[in-house]
Amino acid sequence: MGKKQRRIGHYSSSQKILLVGEGNFSFSASLAKAFRSATNMVATTLKSQDTLLTEHRSCEEH
């Protein structure tokens, strides 16, 4: 039996989702929470880890 498909806006848990240039990863975290999984997502940032942690301290939570 397959997993129930979940939708949020234009996004579906059955899609493969690539999120490029995430600021603090809050958007990808909200999708993962809504979908109850992040196995179908890849999220990236253009910033270095040091810069990211300095500018967006909340990103560690996501």
UniProtKB/TrEMBL annotation:
Q: Which residues form the 25S rRNA (uridine-N(3))-methyltransferase BMT5-like domain?
A: 18-61
Q: Name one Pfam family in it.
A: BMT5-like
Q: Which GO terms describe its biological process?
A: rRNA base methylation
GO MF annotation: an example: rRNA (uridine-N3-)-methyltransferase activity
Specify the superkingdom.
Eukaryota
Name of protein: 25S rRNA (uridine-N(3))-methyltransferase BMT5-like domain-containing protein
Q: Which organism is it from?
A: Malus domestica
